[in-house]
Amino acid sequence: MTQEFLLQAAVFLPVIAAIVIALVGERNINLREAVSLVTAIILFAVIFGIYRNLALAGQHVVEMAEPINGLSISLAAEPLGVLFALVCSFLWIVTSIYSIGYMRGHHEKHQTRFYACFALSIGSAMGVALSANLFSLFVFYELLTLVTYPLVTHSGTDEARRAGRVYLGYLLGTSIGLQLLAIVCTWSMTGTLDFTAGGIFDQQDPDFVILVIFVLFMFGIGKAALMPFHRWLPAAMVAPTPVSALLHAVAVVKAGVFSIVKISVYIFGLDELFNSGATDWLVYVSGATILIASIIALGKDNLKARLAYSTISQLSYVILATAIIAPLSIMGAALHIAAHAFGKITLFFAAGSISVASGRKNVSQLAGIGKQMPWTMTAFAIGSLSMIGVPPTAGFLSKWYILQGAWSMHNTVAITVIIISTLLNAGYFLPIVYTAFFREQDGPDYYEGGEAPVAIVLALAITALFTMVLFLYPAPLLELVKSIKL
């Protein structure tokens, strides 16, 4: 199959799956869920084909439409986008397995809508990952916001609807009010929005103008949850756990930090950012986001809320690595997109497993639960170690490269932030693991049950395993990120 066919299939396969899921509906739930799982497997095979063709095909651009003269919706494959697409498509397979156990175990309503919107979300994420230009990225970025809204409001409660309003308000407000303005300014100054190695701005462009446009982009990409535009993320925790996994690990927040890295590298270019000093402020803002979110996480008893603020903190590692603007730190940013995806989805899967099996949602209720749910809590421990950055987990690998990049640029602020935040990460994750395995249960809510349904346990075991596999066998991943053209 040609690269052109594969690129288009990556976007349209999930859309076709969503249509079939909607048509099947509740009449045959096994077929409906099989469509989701099989499509996820086929999509990963397609993305893997794009990856295999990457070295041979070069920058092959596929134009899908040209709604505005000179601005097309186009797709292309490059290493950073293929990395995001590989992670996203693989995790759709695992999340589909998990969702079968979770949605049935919780007897959730509107499951057809859930699976259809989930497929559309993956299709939008593929569009973001494989966009050939900034206009295409913006279109798919907005579509991703709109198709995930029904997932955030899935339960239909007043709390869910409020969360949905916050979700749309923050994400559409930042993208239309800030990001779109930055895109218009970029187009007017450069005459192009194509992603180009080395960037598209001219060295003669005023540094202050570059700084202003860069600031608009950084805060305009609200999905990256850079403070103060982060409140939508903890608000969205009212959604079912598979949706939380989608938001935090598979598509939404990854689309945000991926966009930040891609725009920094292929629109501005590292040399332009360094010469203009446009990223100096971002080291402090992303560093503050990392530390503040970690401190807030320390005080959260609700497990999903603690994980939500952990996500806000971990996302800003990618932003901090980008702000360092060293080749090694950019590699670290790309690696952390993958490492965080596998580690954090494992943690959310574990939280959902605990909720389905025992009904417990708070950290204070987890004493001794590791003895009843050893698979779940072992996976949680592995995910926690990856978030802290301890070997043998993928989180250590990405943090190592970020630290190396900071060291090469003599960036003491970034180094200090990473060290302090690592200690904070340990402070809000390790007590959970210790309590689950080494404290005895007490009180009226004594739990004598076992693990969650097999589909849930299988999914979290797979992601926990891959969290370690990425550390033990990193060569393919490192080869991909090293081929990013800086």
How would you describe this structure to a colleague?
The chain is an all-alpha fold and 486 residues long. The chain has a domain of 206 residues. Helix content is 74%, strand content 2%. The chain is built from 20 helices and two strands. A two-stranded antiparallel ribbon has the order 1-2. Strand 1 and strand 2 form a beta hairpin. Helix 10 packs parallel to helix 13. The chain starts with a helix and ends with a helix. The mean pLDDT is 89.
Q: What is the number of helical segments per DSSP (H or I, 4+ residues)?
A: 20
Write down how many β-strands occur, each being a DSSP E stretch of 2 or more residues: 2
Which residues sit in consecutive blocks of at least 5 with pLDDT less than 50?
Answer: none
**What summary fits the major beta sheet?**
2 strands, antiparallel
Question: Order of strands side by side in the largest beta sheet?
Answer: 1-2
Helix percent reads over 70%
The ordered string of helix (H) and strand (E) elements is HHEEHHHHHHHHHHHHHHHHHH
State which percent range the strand residues make up.
Answer: under 5%
Assign an overall shape. globular
Q: Which whole number gives the mean pLDDT? A: 89
Task: Tell me the Rg in angstroms.
Answer: 21 Å
Cα(first) to Cα(last) distance is 29 Å
Structural class: mainly alpha
